[in-house]
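Colleagues,

Please find the record for the two-part complex below.
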Amino acid sequence: MSSPKQDEAVLLDGVSFQYGNQTVLEDVSLQINKGSFLGLVGPNGSGKSTLVKLLLGLLQPQTGEIRLFGQRISKFHQWGKIGFVSQKANSFNSGFPATVFEVVSMGLYGKVGLLRFLTKTHKQAIREAIDQVGMTDFMHKNIGELSGGQQQRVFIARALVSEPELLILDEPTVGVDVTSVRQFYDLLDRLNKEKEITLVLVTHDIGAMTDHVTDVACLNKTLHFHGNTADFEANQDLSSFYGHDVHLLTHNHSHGGH
Amino acid sequence: MLDAFFRYEFLQNAFYTGLLIGLLAPMLGVFLVVRRLALIADALSHITLSGIAASLLLSKHVVFFQGLNPLYIGLVFSVGGSLLIEQLRNAYKYYKEIAIPIILSGGIGLGVVFISLADGFNNDLFNYLFGSVIAVSRSDLWTISIITVLVVTVIFLFYKELFFLSFDEEQALVSGINRKLINFIFIIMVALVIAASMRVVGILLVSSLMTLPVAAAMRLAKGFKQMFLYSILFGEIAVIAGLIFAFHLDLAPGGMIVMIAVLILLVVILFEKTFWKISRVFSKSQKTR
């Protein structure tokens, strides 16, 4: 911890957030180091998605401070350094007539900037990102013709194409079949180890996650735990609470309650 | 037709104007349709009508307006209406679409008041409602040419931002795209195109030229760029064929253009269905072999 500024990708210091008078996050302090692979878990309504929106600058906390790569978020402008893959279901209309190539190219638009156009180098980067997620054969297909798992890989390619240093994934495996989920985690492992991208994975799916992540953070309005994966698994109460609770909640969710 | 075309200036005006709006209307229509905002075109065309009516009313009483092309006041109302829609959409965060009926009924209401004050309908107003082959002037053609250059340039320059915002607004925001600025520019372009289109298609039918070609293109296109090409192609076919029929049968061109656009849509849907059936039968017969 001699030079924390250099190691930290994300720092939250005493962050609280309310929607109206309902407190969603309370006094959350969390440091995410460069090169780590953090699994952020918590039941429905625990404030996970709100935390992600805060990190992306889509919401501002009422109290506390957020730093990205050592810079206060209000002064942070290098959004190209941060990739975001959202929960597929609620963020786009699957009938939209756009090819895989077109969707991935969007990942560069922010970086390219207003009144500028994609160059040959950009197009090469787009093809490489598509290749990295193994979707080259589908480059000119409409996004709506692909399966849920394939669409999710396309969205990862879109996040990768701007060569981010931090990749945030919000419930990316919802609605994706088991085989695809395994391939998906393999891909994340490769990005983390080979490309040294810092990963934050928000998920319900504790079982598959703990085999891959280096650190775990448990959130339920306040931060209940933050440490490495071995400590999380050693703490039986915690892992069974979050694991069990989460299962129950997903069950309730899919059957509309009792 | 060809002979008459070279003989009469009004036919040339109508035809060139038609070609320009056959390009413009579907081009903006693509973004309106994918953003589920197709009805904005209706709201803006109705407020444009009140602008036209205001101009016709003023021309009865104020000398200055007698020489003025009513298109200009129509443009002012259309752009003003588009800004009001943006304001209303921000005011009703969770019921954004309510902005459209408010402007639509407000526009037609104001228009009716102006028309009554001007002592009822005249032939001129009828032309604005349903389009006309003979009423397009050289000054209309020039105004619409300038609008075309402006709109095509702006869409070309902001294509990638518009595309991203249409596909996934949240992600576009995350990547630092200025939504307010882009939406503002876009809706002004829509207002300009609507005012430009009404001479040929007519106010009541402008929105159909923005949506019908796009609806047909959507069923065939692979990717967003292709959707543009098909939409413009269908838009131009509808305008050209519509104008020719309207001239020969002495009908309002707006109605003919829309009928052709509907026909294209039907053909595309039928073509797509039979194509799909044939390919299924074909793949079945291959499997049984």
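Residues 245-258 of chain A have pLDDT under 50 and may be disordered.

Comments are welcome before we finalize the supplementary table.
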